[in-house]
Every structure is written in C-alpha cells, then in structure tokens.
Amino acid sequence: MSIKEKQDWLRQPHMPVTYSKLYLERARERGVPPEQVLRVAGLSTGLLADPAGRISPHDFTHLVATVLQLTGDEGLGFEVGSHQPLTAHGSLGYALLCSGTVDEAALLLQRFWHLRGRGIALRYLEQGDWLVFELRCEQPLPPLLQQVTMQAVVTSCYRGLQLLLGGTDPQAEFWLEHPQPSYFERFRQRLPGVRFDMPATQLRVPRALRDLRLPMASPDALELAVAQCERELALLGEWQDDTLAGVRAAMTPGPEGYPDPDVLAERLHMSPRTLRRKLQAQGGSYRRLLEDVRRRDAVQLLENPALEIQKVAELLGYADPANFTRAFRLWTGKTPSQFRAMRVGG
Q: Which domains, ranges and CATH numbers included, belong to the chain?
C-alpha cells in the first residue's frame, strides 16, 4: 500500500460509530459527557445520531485520545473491550453467532475483519497447541494510544469468544507487547492470563477448541448473514475486502497437505469461481499463496528442533526433501539445516 493509499483510508469514514459510542459511554461513566468529548475533539455532535453512521480511523483515534485526556484513565482499553457485545459488529457479529464451530467463526472473522473498519490487522493461525489471533496496528499511533487501542481489541476478541461459547471459559491467554502497567491490577481477576513484553499482540486459545460445536449454530441464518456481509463489502468497495489474508489464514497443512482451492472456497463460504476472481482482483493466485504459506510454515516448523527436516518437508507437502531444500534456499538463501543452526543452535 502506497503512502497516498494509507492516507486515503485513514481519512475515509468506514468505521462504525458503535465503537466510538463504547468509548463515549465509558467517558460518561467517569463524569465526562459525550458532548464535551466531541466538542474538544472537534467532531460533530451529530456523529451519534445515525446508528449506521461511520467515522474515519483518523477521527476515531482522535476521539479515543480525547477520552483519555479528559478522563485520565489509561485502563480504558481493557474496560471498553470487556463491554463490547458481538452485536456491536453488526452483520459480522450475527454471522459469528450463527457459526457452526470456533474455526468457522474465526475464518469468517478473518475474512470480514476489515468490514468493520481498518486500523488493526488480524491474522488467524495455529501454533502448536494454540489457536492464535494475532493483531497488528496498521497506523502510526503514540505509544499510549496504541497500547489502549490494542488492549481494547484483544479484550473484545476474548469477550466475543466467551459469548460464542455460551459463557464457557476458553482457557485463553493474552500476549501484549508493552510492559505491565500499574492499572492492570484492576483487571487481573476479569481477564485470562496476560503476558507482557511479548513480541506480538495475540489472543491465544487451546487448539482443542477449533472444531467445538457452538451452541447457537444455524446454517440457514449463517448463509443469510454472510450474504449481508458480502453486500456491505460491495457497498464499501473492493478495497475493504481482504480475501488474501483470509486465504492465508485458512491455508494450514493437514494430514493430506494444504487445502486445495475448492476446499478453501467452501471454508470461506464462496464459490471457487468467486475465490479466483477475488484473488485475481487483489493480485494473488492460489499457487503464489501456497508458496507464501509454505515459506511461513517452514520457518515456524524449523524452529522446533524435535522435528527432523525430512518430516518438515512432508508436512509442507514435499514428497522429495531435496525439492524442499531447493525451495527453501530460494526463499532465504540458506538450506534448512543452515537456517536451523542459525536460529536454534546459535
């Protein structure tokens, strides 16, 4: 994405005002009226009038910064995330509630994530015994504002998973990139285990939940909700669609290797023809993505010294380990053995 494109989407009103209202409500609880927040932020008081209204990422982050300034409460991120219902996500939230399994809901969340606005990127993947929802900030923010924003999003993902599971404890874990703040003690009993100073922001849940049937599953209602999400994408424009990221997340190796295009299309609730069209529109293809995810997974697998390199090649779908070695050398300039020695042995 070019600098101009980044500036364009930062100024485009594509984030639902429901998220702004969550911060304004927390401000009200702390004695700061929403009208005061909007006035200080230089935003129209009519912002809240339309339930379907939208705000730009630039104005949204300015509003959050203003709430922080007026309330002086740096723990707002955990607070906002804990109060965010799935219904705040509109048709996407309804689709999640109707999903059959945790994995199906996660893939839908990945596919339609940018439908609810940009600013934070989501990656859904498996790492060993964990399902991982990895979050990355897509816009430059001051450290405190980024900290609060990421805390809100990761906590809302956790809250959403709890709701999908009917209130069952998912035995989750948070990873946060910043040091432990003093206000964390207020939330310790309300959150799962939290690890600070980590290399990425993640919500991690046991892999055993992947195929767990969800209590509100409804295939017919899900089909209608996905169709509505598709319509909203069409109205917002193709630039909101992130099919490439959804396919990458869905391409994980199983007993029979990586899923083929037909299987991927089924998992992402679209026809193979639609999948090909969307990938082409975003400059991608199945073959190119397969190469990308093989490289991604090769690096991760090689960091496990318990796996023989031949086994790594098999897991990645290479019948001949020599073909894997040639491919890996093209990707990194090193053989798998050299890479492992550097990352693990060194």
A: 1-73 (no CATH), 75-237 (no CATH), 288-345 (1.10.10.60)
